[in-house]
Write a structure and sequence with these properties.
- The chain is an alpha/beta fold and 412 residues long.
- 48% of the residues lie in helices and 8% in strands.
- The chain has 2 domains: 3-13 and 95-394, Metal-dependent hydrolases (TIM Barrel, Alpha-Beta Barrel); 15-92, no CATH class.
- Strands 3-4-5-6-7-8 form a 6-stranded parallel β-sheet, sandwiched between helices. A two-stranded parallel ribbon has the order 1-2.
- The radius of gyration is 20 Å and the shape is globular.
- The model is unreliable at 43-63 (pLDDT under 50).
- The structure holds zinc ion (ZN).
- Zinc ion binds next to loops.
- Pfam families: Amidohydro_2.
- It comes from Syntrophobacter fumaroxidans (strain DSM 10017 / MPOB).
């Protein structure tokens, strides 16, 4: 059994593309990029990149990090150096959710199960809303889950500003979802938020997932400073918005949560990010601090039985990075090997390489660990009442089918 623990199948209609690009690249560049991508999509041409290069307009504050920090693996600098990958990424997201799933299953033909993580952008973006709202995204995800007959194990996106935790309970117990996805850079921290309602919803979530359960419902949380998207909302008294929102994903925010809910099952996704790992591989870790998130994640993994990480969006294993990366990673994870998961982060990782190459590179980098990372580690992470009971019940209610793919989750 091989499991891709972190992928995405929502399409461009499910995310506010313009707001998202603006948050990543600045108001001017992000807005233009969005317009050009729409034009490029219309005629299927990719020559718009020449226009992009020549009409490139500086929105300096927002772009500075993207241009100067080579660790940013989806920044403007990376985009200009890898235009083909950016087009591949955008075109991948233009297809229907069903097409994205079918293509992913076909390309990763030795993976058996997939864990697609939803995205909730409803409270994160100003002046830009998705064509397909959150409820519709959820409905499509439920259809796809039913059709996949146990091979697709989706995580429900939760933004504590958007809805109470009853939505999570319904998603897990009746709608086929087996875990929860949190994306703090959308504008909330895992704990320590000023708004009491947001804090209350988060505490309710952790209680629901962990309390009284020998196998808690798993939560996957974005935990990378070197890539990913942020809210585009202006925050009062804040100058550097990208850094402000990125910092909300910092692993240290989880210390307080885990002090209260010690058995919470958590995947701190990306292990700090591909940029941090590229640098660690080539020059060693920085002292603990702002751009060394991996050591904080590692400490949480060592201190808490149910804290995991994944190597999603780490499709950088080429050239001189490859050997150095696997050496640095294996050295770092000594003692917590059983809590490292693999995820393709497809189709976000279309920015890095094709899906076949992504898996091939990991097989070659970790020949002795690959089976455990995609196998028993992932099964342990995903095993809960949701995979044992709720998802089988959901599938039975939809198609009367008992999936053999869910058998590994039955025994503790
Ligand atoms: Zn992801």
């Amino acid at each position: 059994m091989r499991i891709d623990c972190h992928c995405h199948v929502f399409n461009n209609d499910c995310i506010p593309v313009k707001g998202l690009l603006q948050s990543r690249f600045g108001i001017v560049v992000g807005g233009r990029l969005s317009d050009w991508l729409i034009d490029a999509g219309k005629d299927g041409a990719i020559s718009f990149l020449d226009a992009f290069r020549s009409r490139f307009s500086m929105d300096f504050d927002s772009l500075l990090g993207s241009l100067t920090d080579p660790s940013e693996k989806d920044g403007i600098r990376y985009l200009l150096e890898h235009p083909g990958q950016f087009v591949r990424f955008f075109l991948a997201g233009k297809r229907s959710v069903r097409e994205i799933v079918a293509d992913m299953i076909e390309k990763a033909d030795d993976i058996d199960l997939w864990v697609p993580l939803m995205m909730d952008t409803q409270s994160a973006y100003e002046g830009s809303s998705p064509l397909c709202g959150f409820d519709e995204q959820k409905r499509i995800m439920m259809e796809v889950t039913a059709e996949a007959r146990g091979r697709v194990l989706p995580f429900f996106a939760y933004d504590p500003r958007s809805r109470p935790v009853e939505a999570v309970r319904a998603a897990i117990e009746h709608e086929g979802f087996v875990g929860v996805k949190l994306y703090p850079p959308m504008g909330f921290k895992p704990c320590g938020n000023e708004e009491p309602a947001v804090e209350g919803n988060l505490q309710d979530l952790y209680e629901y997932c962990a309390a009284g359960r020998s196998d808690p419902i798993p939560i996957a949380a974005h935990c990378s400073w070197s890539d990913g998207v942020t809210s585009n909302r202006k925050a009062h008294g804040v100058n550097k918005h990208k850094e402000y929102y990125r910092e909300m994903a910092h692993p240290s925010h989880w210390e307080g949560v885990l002090a209260k809910h010690g058995n919470l099952k958590l995947n701190l996704a990306h292990f700090g990010g591909a940029g941090e790992w590229e640098r660690r591989a080539l020059t060693g870790p920085l002292p603990a601090g702002k751009k060394n998130w991996a050591d904080t994640i590692l400490k949480l993994m060592k201190d808490h039985e149910n804290v995991y990480t994944d190597l999603s969006f780490h499709g950088i294993l080429v050239g001189n990075v490859r050997k150095a990366y696997s050496r640095a990673l294996l050295e770092t994870i000594q003692g917590v090997e059983e809590k490292v998961l693999l995820g393709s982060d497809w189709y976000m990782s279309a920015l890095q390489c094709g899906l076949e190459d992504y898996w091939l590179r990991f097989k070659e980098a970790f020949p002795n660990q690959f089976n455990d990372m995609t196998g028993r580690n992932a099964v342990r992470f995903l095993r809960s009442e949701a995979t044992k009971t709720f998802l089988p019940d959901f599938l039975a209610s939809r198609n009367g089918y008992q999936s053999k793919y869910l058998e590994p989750f039955r025994d503790s």
